[in-house]
Amino acid sequence: MARLDPHSYADSEQPVAERIDLALRVDFAQRVLAGSALLTLREASAGPLDLDTRDLRIGAVETPEGKPLRYELAPPERILGTRLRVHLPPGTRALRIRYSTSPEASALQWLAPSQTAGGRHPYLYSQCQPIHARSLAPLQDTARIRIRAGARFTVPEHLRALMAAAPLGREAGGEGEVVDLFEMPQPVPPYLLAFAVGDLSPRQLSTRSAVWAERSVVDAAAWELDGVETMLQVAEVLFGPYEWERYDVLVMPPSFPFGGMENPRLTFATPSLLAGDRSLVNVIAHELAHAWTGNLVSNATLEHFWLNEGFTVYAERRILEALEGAEAAELHAAVGLHELEVSLRRFAKRPELTRLRTDMQGVDPDEAYSTVPYEKGYLFLRRLEELAGRDRWDLFLRAYLDRFRFQSITTDDFLRFLDQRLPGMSSKAGADRWIDGPGLPPDAPQPRSRRLDELREMARRAGEGVLPDENAAVRLQPTELLVFLQSVPELSADVCGQLDALLGLSRRRSLELRHAFVLVQLRAGVEAGREAARWLLRETGRMKYLRPVYTELARRPQTRALAREIYEETRATYHPIARTVVESILG
Ligand code: BES
Ligand code: ZN
Predict the structure, then answer these.
(1) Which of 86, 176, 296, 581 has its CA 20 to 30 A from that of 544?
(2) Of 188, 196, 128, 139, residue with least CA distance to 163
């Protein structure tokens, strides 16, 4: 026996499931999904089949005709979950597992009506990446095994299920219920299985794109995402045809723990994107870019996560460069580098987690999650582009996407292909040092632009108590402001207040800007910062904002108790993954 992935019980000697058909009833009262999963194997097989599960209640395992099959559950393991071993009689082509999920299923967040924008209906959504699909359904939960899917969700009739798949319509259900049907024809890693149930409405953005959200949010969402079709076209010019037919976006409730999730055909996005000025659409560029880097060419395991995220940040910035120009893309790169530096400091005592290729044996991927694979991966690819020249590098990228389409690959697959297509490049770039070494190599690319220099100079002067004049201040664009705020040294309480008066930072809709300013306020020790932190931490469950603000509050003795107090109040509204993060910060 050989395990395929440190985070899965899937065994290389065993049969492979190529399709899963889910039939699940969504029970908001009990907070469970109940029904069955039909797994179809690639070929008629026999012997043991090990599946990943977590907190599932297994009712029966049987043939499609209903003949019981022998199975056993191993003792649960903290990170991996519970192995379900089914013994297949010779000639088995498919098996059905009757089961229900737990109210604590790690992939699911069940929201009470009060946690939604409308306040009248409950809401349910899944987040399977990195290894939570197993809490939704028994399967081989490794990106190495791509799977097709069909689904039937029985939901209350006034709600609607959406899935990252093609909708096949709706059937009548039992009393007060309907059945929404879906089919995902392209094989995808299980972490990309996704669905949501709520009071959802669409607005068309183009013939192949729509945004979905709760009614009260959908108009603002449609305005913010107006540029999606243009973005799709720019991405197709860069990376080749979009392979997934539709590109829809579902704007989630505020507790969604990520900025976005690249679920195929249906990106899930945080409502904090709706800044009212289209300044945060880089998140959409990122999730859209995953349609090529991540969903078409996928990391084989989380040890190669940088292949997903590093490539996608690189692709995201190429899209931004095409849309907004090189200066704008460079500002985003500078913001990214700042976030990378924060992460490298956070992992000072765990340098092994700052490699691009990581050893994940015994590591909980939710705990290892950081911006390192994103931004270090980005810089590595940018270094390769620098050395190859853009034209040759772009040809390489297209060839890479073509060679590995609909496959799941490792870092070595990438390196071998790089050596074939651009011989000598990996040693020239010192690829080994990037991939298996900690931190950043000394020759890492440095984001540079005139505007960047000006903003840093402006920040330095603010540290000396000299603020930009009103003319310069009103001209600052959101991303410029962000760079400025990240570069500002510790301010006096006085200057901090003047800065707010000048730029209106504490009244901005954008959480990106408001959280950056809260950090400045907390460092300056101003009273207003504490209340601003409280509002922000109530308003969002996005970990990108929770982590730094809780960290800053917990770091200083004057605000440590406040951090605990706020968390006590907000805890119930956060996603379980976000709770774990905050609890690790609060100790
Ligand atoms: N795939 C990630 C989100 C993710 C990663 C969820 C690992 C669970 C485990 C998504 O594409 C992402 O990177 N989102 C970022 C967007 C940003 C980089 C523009 C986020 O959530 O902040
Ligand atoms: Zn991503």
Answers:
(1) 296
(2) 196
Distance separating alpha carbons of residues 3 and 304, to the nearest angstrom:
16
The closest ligand to the CA of 192 turns out to be 1
Query: For 316, which DSSP code?
Result: H
Instruction: State the distance from the centre of ligand 1 to the C-alpha of 415, rounded, in angstroms.
Output: 24
Neighbour-count burial for 508-539, b at 16+ CB within 10 Å, e otherwise: bebbbbbbbbbbbbbbbbbebbbebbbebbeb
Asked if residue 243 lies in contact with residue 186, where contact means CB atoms within 8 angstroms, the answer is: yes
Q: Is 116 exposed, middle or buried (0-12, 13-18, 19+ CB in 10 A)?
A: buried
Residues written for the chain = 587
State the catalytic residues.
287, 374
Q: Determine phi and psi for 82, rounding to 5 degrees.
A: -115, 125
The per-residue pLDDT for range 214-232, each reduced to its tens digit, is 999 999 999 999 999 999 9
pLDDT exceeds 90 at position 1: no
One-letter amino acid at 334 equals A
Taking Cα atoms as reference points, which of 184, 188, 187, 233 lies closest to residue 208? 233
Strand 195-198 with 260-261, pairing: unpaired
- Give the predicted TM-score (pTM) of the model: 0.98
Pocket test for ligand 1, best of 286, 308, 332, 540 (most atoms within 8 A of CB): 286
Query: Ligand 1, residues 109, 258, 270, 283: which to mutate, most atoms within 8 A of Cβ?
Result: 258
pLDDT tens-digit readout, 347-358:
999 999 999 999
